[in-house]
Amino acid sequence: MRLATVGTTLLRLCFPPRCVGCGTRLPAHARFEMVCERCFALIPRHRWLTCPVCRARIPVILEARPQGSPRSRLSPGSPLVETKVDMSTSDSLAFHRGLSVVGCPSASLGMVSSSNHRLPRCHPEARFVLAAASDFRNQTVRELIHALKYRPAHRVALPLATLLAEYIAGLAATLPPGILPLIPVPLHPRRERERGWNQAAVLARTLAGFCPGRFEVRDDVLRRIRYTEPQVSFRDRVWRAANISGSFACASETLPLGPIAVLIDDVSTTGATLGEAARVLRHAGVRTVIGLVVASA
């Protein structure tokens, strides 16, 4: 047994880890290192995509329907529509259209096409579609994301990647078949040296391991070309967008990505970071960018 393993075992015996949600001691062979099963089960799960501007829910395709069969209608008062949509359009996300968006009364559900990509109908200026597995207001989620970002606890990626894998399973009929590029939002090399790792890349690799044949981790696509202040330093949406503007570039102009790319990060607050990264990917020819995060704030 390696000395590091022995040291870790002794440390866990002397100082048993506690759940970040409720503070209870975790058993020696717990599934996750930092959260108990009860608190993990109580984490809110999302089952929808979101407009990154107004946070209106975009109903996902839960079931493919035979061509020509009727579509379901919006149930009165229902926050989420379980639509059955024709899956014959294969190269982009397909959504039911013509229904009222929850939280965005003047808009319509679904996606609208442009010459370059698909985007939410309610805010067609959006550069990506937000896919958030959970809610950052949940204390357990906040503590786990904080641990992944600021402490050398790579095993904390396991519960977060499990949340993402469950969320992806719920979107299975919405996403096109085949392997999708999974692109971690990069850190500037200076910040990655300071921190020692990129939490988005850790999440991407762990999630890809949970979903074999679904994602290909592409950390060779984007690079951070400008060192900026941490986004957490800014509360205002406008200041966050200005801080991150011009921070990303494609590593090469000839990288084949296909029509859909999945950006992955730990959390989305105003969507400024994902939006700037998505802008670069769209300029490189990607038609639809999905911003996949553990939680949205």
Brief write-up:
This protein has 297 residues and is of the alpha/beta class. 28% of the residues lie in helices and 21% in strands. Among the domains are: 12-42, no CATH class; 129-296, 3-Layer(aba) Sandwich (Rossmann fold).
Biggest sheet: strand arrangement: 9-15-14-10-11
The computed structural class is alpha/beta
Helix fraction by DSSP (H/I, runs of at least 4): 25-40%
H/I helix tally: 8
CATH class of the domain at 129-296: Alpha Beta
CATH architecture type of the domain at 129-296: 3-Layer(aba) Sandwich
- In the predicted model, the low-confidence regions spanning at least 5 consecutive residues are 62-110, 112-117
Sheet-strand content, in percent, reads 15-25%
Largest sheet: 5 strands, parallel
Q: What is the straight-line distance between the termini?
A: 43 Å
Q: Remind me, CATH topology of the domain at 129-296?
A: Rossmann fold
Global morphology: globular
Number of strands: 15
Query: Would you list the SSEs in sequence order as H and E?
Result: HHEEEEEEEEEHHEHHEEHEEHE
Overall average pLDDT: 77
Radius of gyration: 20 Å
